[in-house]
C-alpha cells in the first residue's frame, strides 16, 4: 500500500514538474489566413485539451505556439491541422522556420527611373540567395530577405552588377552608411549628372552647327552622328545589352529604335533632336523626383542629431544611440528632445507639432513625461532617459513612415501590371501601323514608318510608374505632419471605401476619467453642502470615484473632523463627520441600513448619502465625453459614413446615454473583450464596404487586428493596440480620424488626376501620331513632359494645412 502511494506520488510529481521530468519541445505554427478571433480562442482551448500539450494562439501575429513532449512530435502537426481546419477551413498551417533570416536594407543612390526599379526588382529576385525583394522608388530603399542566413559579398556584388547594368549611375550602398551631403539639392544633381549635362550642352551645339551652318551633306551627317552619339550612345548600348538579356520593351529600346529609325528614313536632325530633348527631359524628371523626395524627407525631419549626456556634472555631446536608459541628459532651448524620458529638473514649453500635429505648445515640469522629437522652446531641462534610441517615439515613427510605402496600394499594383502590358501593346501597334497601311493603301512606307516611330516614343509609361508611388508616399508624409501615421499605401487607399466606423468608448470617445456631473441634494441642503459632506466621507479612499468627488470639491480638507472611517466592500463607506454618522455608497448600502432612497435614473454611477439614518442626497459620477467627439461623429456622417457604432463594457443606461448624446447609430453595452470580437464579426458581415475599428486599450488589440482598418489612439494607447493597428493617431483627439479620411480622399483624387492626365495626353498623341498630325517632338513631350508635370502634381498631396 505504501509502495503504491509512493508510485502515485512520483507520477504526480512528474506531471507537475513537466519540463524537468520529461524532455519538452517547442514549435511555432503560422496560421495564414486566420481572421476570426473567436475561432482562435476555440483552437487554443482544444489544443490545450490534448494531453501533455500547452498551446497559445496569438491572433495579432497569427501564430500558434505549442510546448509538448518529444514523443508526441509525429502526430501533433496532424492534430493541430485537424483542429484548426475544423474552425477555420481556409487557414493554411505551416511551420515557422527556425533559421529565421533578417531582412537587409540598401539604398539605391542615384535611382531616378521607376521603370528601371521594377526591372531591378525582377532580376534580383531571380538570384538563388534571395528569398524575396522589394524596391521602394519613393525612398530608394531596396529590401532583401536572404534565403539562407545573410547575403554574402558575392551576392551583393551580383546585385550591384544587375543595378548598374540597368541604370549605370545608380549605386548600391547599405542604408545608414551614406555620407551626409551639405550641398543643396540642385548642387547634388549637378554632381551626380554633371557628365550628362556636359554631353547635352555639347550635343546641342553640334546639332545647331549641323542644322544652321552652310556645310556639305557629308560633314552635316557627321555632325549629326557625333551629336547623336554624345547623348544617345549610352542609351543604344543599354538597349543592346537589355535585348541580349531578353528585356525588349523598355524606354532604352523604344528611344533607340525610334531615333535610329528616323535616321534610316532621312530625318537626321529630328532623330538627334528627339534624343537630345529626351535626355533634357530625363534630367528635369530627375530633378523633379529628387525635389519631391527632399520635400517628403523635410516633412519627417524629426530625427535628433545628438544628445547632451551629463557625465560627472558636465554635458557631453554624444550620438543618441550611445545613451542608455537611466542616463540623464540636458535639453537646451531650441534643441530637439533626443530620447524619451521624464523631466527631473526644470520647466519649459515644448513644440510637439512634428509628432502630434498640435499647434499649441505643451508645458512640462519636473515629473512630466516627454517624447523624442519634441522641440524645447525656452527653459533648460534635465531629463532621465527611459528608453534607448531604437525604442524611442521618434525612431518608431520614422520606421513606420519609411516602411509604409513598401505596402503598395491596389492602384499602385494595378499600374505596375498595366505597364507590363501597355508598352508591348503599343510596340505591336506601331509595327502594324508601319506595315499594314502601305500594303493596303499603297502609301509610301517612310510616311507610315515615321508615324510608327512617334508611337514608340509615346509608349513609355514613366509618368504613371513614377508619380503614383510618390503620390501615395506624399500622402503618408503629409498625414504624419497632422499627427496621423498610416502604415501603408494600401490602408490609405482603403480609407476611401469606409462605410462603418466602430468605436471603443473609454479613452476613445470619452476621457476615461470620472467627474461629478450632477449634485442632487434633498430637503434644505444645498449642492455645496452635500458635496462637502461627500468629500469628507470619501477623503480616505483611493477609489477613482472617491478621488473624483474630492477633486470636484476642490478645497482643502480638515481630516480631523473625521473621527471614524470604515470601507464596506462592494457597498461604500461609513464615516463619522463632526460626530454624525454618514453613509456614502450604492443603493444596496442604503437598503442594508434601512434608508429609503428615491428612484433615480441617470447615466453614470450614483453615490447615495445618508446622515443619521435619513437620505440627504446623491451625486452622479460619470465618464465625460471627449471634446470634439460630437463634431467627429457629425463630420463622419457628412463625409458619407453610413453607420457609426460604439462598443462598451459599461452598463446599458450609461452607454445609451453617451450614444444618444453623440448621435451614434448603434450602441452595444455590457460587453466583455470576447463579446466585442463577436459583435464586431457580425457587424463586419453586415457591411459591404470597409469597416474601421477605433480603440486604445490592450483589450482592443484582437478587434483592431480583425478590422479592415484598425485605428489606435497612439498618444496614450497601449503598445499592443499600436502594433495591431493600421493607422495610429498621435493624439487622443477623435477629429484626427476625420483628418485621416480627408488625407486619403485628397491622395486618391490627385493620384487619379495623374492617371487620367497621363493616359489622356498619351492617348491623344497616339491618335495624332497615327494620323500624321503629331511629330516626334510632341511625342517626347507626351512622354517626358507629362512625367514632370505628374510628379509636380503628386507633391500637392503633402499640403494638408486646409484639412
Automatic annotation (TrEMBL):
**Catalytically driven reaction(s):** Cd(2+)(in) + ATP + H2O = Cd(2+)(out) + ADP + phosphate + H(+)
Q: Where in the cell is it found?
A: Cell membrane
The HMA domain, residue ranges: 25-92, 102-171
What Enzyme Commission number(s) appear in the record?
A: 7.2.2.21
Q: What topology does it adopt in the membrane?
A: Multi-pass membrane protein
Give the residue spans that cross the bilayer: 197-215, 222-241, 253-278, 421-440, 452-473, 755-774
Gene3D superfamilies assigned: 3.30.70.100, Calcium-transporting ATPase, cytoplasmic domain N, Calcium-transporting ATPase, cytoplasmic transduction domain A, HAD superfamily/HAD-like
Under the heading InterPro entries, the entry gives: ATPase_P-typ_cyto_dom_N, ATPase_P-typ_P_site, ATPase_P-typ_TM_dom_sf, ATPase_P-typ_transduc_dom_A_sf, ATPase_P-type_domA, Cation_Transport_ATPase_IB, HAD-like_sf, HAD_sf
Task: Kindly give the Pfam families that the UniProt entry links to this protein.
Answer: E1-E2_ATPase (PF00122), HMA (PF00403), Hydrolase (PF00702)
Record keywords, A-Z: ATP-binding, Cadmium, Cell membrane, Membrane, Metal-binding, Nucleotide-binding, Translocase, Transmembrane, Transmembrane helix
Query: What GO molecular function terms would the record report?
Result: ATP binding; ATP hydrolysis activity; metal ion binding; P-type cadmium transporter activity
- Enzyme class comes to translocase
Q: Look up the record and report any one GO term of the cellular component aspect.
A: plasma membrane
Instruction: Name the family.
Output: Belongs to the cation transport ATPase (P-type) (TC 3.A.3) family. Type IB subfamily.
NCBIfam families this protein is in?
ATPase-IB2_Cd, ATPase-IB_hvy, ATPase_P-type
Q: What is this protein called?
A: Cd(2+)-exporting ATPase
Amino acid at each position: 500500500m505504501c509502495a503504491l502511494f509512493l508510485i502515485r506520488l512520483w507520477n504526480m510529481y512528474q506531471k507537475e514538474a513537466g519540463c524537468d521530468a520529461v524532455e519538452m519541445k517547442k514549435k511555432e505554427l503560422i496560421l495564414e489566413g486566420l481572421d476570426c478571433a473567436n475561432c482562435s480562442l476555440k483552437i487554443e482551448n482544444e489544443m490545450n485539451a490534448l494531453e501533455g500539450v500547452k498551446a497559445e494562439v496569438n491572433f495579432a501575429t497569427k501564430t500558434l505556439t505549442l510546448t509538448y513532449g518529444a514523443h508526441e512530435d509525429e502526430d501533433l502537426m496532424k492534430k493541430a491541422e485537424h483542429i484548426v481546419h475544423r474552425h477555420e477551413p481556409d487557414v493554411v498551417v505551416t511551420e515557422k522556420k527556425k533559421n529565421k533570416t533578417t531582412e537587409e536594407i540598401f539604398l539605391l543612390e542615384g535611382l531616378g527611373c521607376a521603370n528601371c526599379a521594377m526591372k531591378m526588382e525582377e532580376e534580383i529576385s531571380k538570384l538563388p540567395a534571395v528569398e524575396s525583394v522589394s524596391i521602394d522608388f519613393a525612398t530608394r530603399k531596396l529590401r532583401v530577405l536572404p534565403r539562407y542566413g545573410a547575403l554574402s559579398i558575392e551576392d551583393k556584388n551580383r546585385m550591384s552588377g544587375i543595378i548598374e547594368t540597368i541604370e549605370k549611375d545608380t549605386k548600391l550602398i547599405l542604408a545608414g552608411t551614406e555620407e551626409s551631403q551639405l550641398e543643396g539639392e540642385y548642387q547634388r544633381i549637378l554632381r551626380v549628372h554633371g557628365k550628362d549635362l556636359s554631353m547635352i550642352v555639347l550635343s546641342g551645339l553640334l546639332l545647331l552647327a549641323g542644322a544652321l551652318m552652310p556645310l556639305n551633306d557629308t560633314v552635316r551627317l557627321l555632325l549629326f552622328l557625333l551629336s547623336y552619339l554624345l547623348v544617345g550612345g549610352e542609351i543604344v548600348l543599354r538597349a543592346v545589352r537589355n535585348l541580349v538579356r531578353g528585356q525588349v520593351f523598355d524606354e532604352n529600346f523604344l528611344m533607340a529604335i525610334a531615333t535610329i529609325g528616323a535616321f534610316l528614313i532621312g530625318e537626321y536632325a529630328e532623330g538627334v533632336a528627339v534624343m537630345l530633348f529626351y535626355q533634357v527631359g530625363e534630367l528635369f524628371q530627375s530633378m523633379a523626383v529628387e525635389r519631391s523626395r527632399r520635400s517628403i524627407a523635410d516633412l519627417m525631419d524629426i530625427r535628433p542629431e545628438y544628445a547632451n549626456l551629463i557625465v560627472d556634472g558636465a554635458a557631453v555631446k554624444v550620438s543618441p544611440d550611445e545613451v542608455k536608459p537611466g542616463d540623464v541628459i540636458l535639453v537646451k532651448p531650441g534643441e530637439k528632445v533626443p530620447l524619451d524620458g521624464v523631466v527631473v529638473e526644470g520647466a519649459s514649453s515644448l513644440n510637439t507639432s512634428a509628432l502630434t500635429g498640435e499647434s499649441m505648445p505643451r508645458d512640462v515640469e519636473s515629473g512630466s513625461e516627454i517624447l523624442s522629437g519634441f522641440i524645447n522652446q525656452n527653459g533648460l531641462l534635465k531629463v532621465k532617459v527611459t528608453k534607448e534610441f531604437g525604442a524611442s517615439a521618434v525612431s518608431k515613427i520614422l520606421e513606420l513612415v519609411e516602411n509604409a510605402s513598401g505596402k503598395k496600394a491596389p492602384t499602385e499594383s494595378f499600374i505596375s501590371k498595366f505597364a507590363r502590358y501597355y508598352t508591348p501593346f503599343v510596340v505591336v501597334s506601331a509595327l502594324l501601323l508601319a506595315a499594314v497601311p502601305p500594303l493596303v493603301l499603297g502609301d509610301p512606307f517612310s510616311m507610315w514608318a515615321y508615324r510608327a516611330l512617334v508611337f514608340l516614343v509615346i509608349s513609355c509609361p514613366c509618368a504613371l510608374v513614377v508619380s503614383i508611388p510618390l503620390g501615395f508616399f506624399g500622402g503618408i508624409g503629409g498625414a504624419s505632419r497632422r499627427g496621423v501615421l498610416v502604415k501603408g499605401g494600401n490602408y490609405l487607399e482603403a480609407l476611401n471605401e469606409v462605410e462603418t466606423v466602430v468605436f471603443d468608448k473609454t479613452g476613445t470617445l470619452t476621457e476615461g476619467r470620472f467627474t461629478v456631473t450632477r449634485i442632487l441634494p434633498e430637503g434644505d441642503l444645498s449642492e455645496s453642502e452635500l458635496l462637502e459632506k461627500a468629500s469628507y466621507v470619501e477623503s480616505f479612499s483611493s477609489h477613482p470615484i472617491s478621488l473624483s468627488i474630492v477633486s470636484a470639491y476642490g478645497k482643502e480638507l480638515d481630516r480631523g473632523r473625521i473621527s471614524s472611517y470604515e470601507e464596506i466592500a462592494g457597498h461604500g463607506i461609513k464615516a463619522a463627520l463632526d460626530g454624525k454618522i454618514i453613509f456614502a455608497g450604492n443603493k444596496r448600502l442604503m437598503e442594508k441600513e434601512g434608508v429609503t432612497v428615491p428612484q433615480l435614473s441617470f447615466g453614470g454611477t450614483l453615490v447615495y448619502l445618508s446622515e443619521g439614518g435619513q437620505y440627504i442626497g446623491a451625486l452622479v459620477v460619470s465618464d465625460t465625453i471627449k471634446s470634439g467627439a460630437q463634431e467627429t461623429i457629425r463630420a463622419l456622417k457628412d463625409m458619407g459614413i453610413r453607420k457609426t457604432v460604439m462598443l462598451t463594457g459599461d452598463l446599458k443606461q450609461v452607454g445609451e446615454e453617451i450614444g444618444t448624446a453623440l448621435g451614434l447609430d448603434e450602441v452595444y453595452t455590457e460587453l466583455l473583450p470576447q463579446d466585442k470580437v463577436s459583435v464586431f464579426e457580425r457587424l463586419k458581415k453586415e457591411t459591404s464596404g470597409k469597416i474601421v475599428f477605433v480603440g486604445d486599450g490592450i483589450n482592443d488589440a484582437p478587434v483592431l487586428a480583425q478590422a479592415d482598418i484598425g485605428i489606435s489612439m497612439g498618444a496614450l494607447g497601449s503598445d499592443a493596440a499600436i502594433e495591431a493597428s493600421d493607422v495610429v493617431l498621435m493624439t487622443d483627439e477623435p477629429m484626427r480620424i476625420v483628418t485621416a479620411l480627408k488625407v486619403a480622399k485628397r491622395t486618391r483624387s490627385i493620384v487619379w488626376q495623374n492617371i487620367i492626365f497621363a493616359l489622356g495626353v498619351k492617348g491623344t498623341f497616339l491618335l495624332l501620331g497615327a494620323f500624321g498630325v503629331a511629330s516626334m517632338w510632341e511625342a517626347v513631350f507626351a512622354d517626358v513632359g507629362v512625367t514632370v508635370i505628374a510628379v509636380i502634381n503628386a507633391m500637392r498631396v503633402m499640403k494638408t494645412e486646409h484639412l
